[in-house]
Amino acid sequence: MSAVTRLTLVAHAVTDAVRHARFPADEPLDPLGLRSIATVGALPGADRAAVYCGPETRTRQTAQSLGLSATPDDALRDLDCGHWAGLPMTATDPADLTAWLTDPTYRAHGGESLTDLLARTHTWLTTLENRGDPIIAITHPAVARAAILTTLDAPAKSFWRIDIPPLTTITLHHRPPAWTLRTTPHPVIRRPCSTAPDAGG
């Protein structure tokens, strides 16, 4: 039987850019992001997994705050938004923003297109196929979306229809010849119990 590679993707914790709808730059987690990590339960298999992270401050901080010793991997870097990096979305020309959201090949901002990101992510996933060991990757929502689309052979135009909140985990399994998206009942966030009546009745 062929070895199964288990890959757990973890989206980094929240940053100021996430909360204020700015194009990402290399910024640290904000105080809310750091506090939110304290509510995260243990990742399955973390003690025996190879752990990687994007090279940015926010992914490295997330890994460190989760108690993981991660190796930075440039393949896990965020989508490059070119000269839009750090700007509010409202600061871009509406026509350019619409083109970016609807045309997967758009790269007039001087960065990567979605098709560039998908190709990069596909190449990275290919390097993991025969590992046969658990892997954890602390990365970005954009990379997680690209990994899901690659796994499902979904079109690039579906990219923005996948919502990846901060600290989301996605599990992919590879058994030749393909990757599989796997759901899990493992609770990622431990929420405090409440004795208050359910407002919904």
From TrEMBL:
Coiled coil: none annotated. It comes from the Bacteria. InterPro entries: His_Pase_superF_clade-1, His_PPase_superfam. This is Broad specificity phosphatase PhoE.
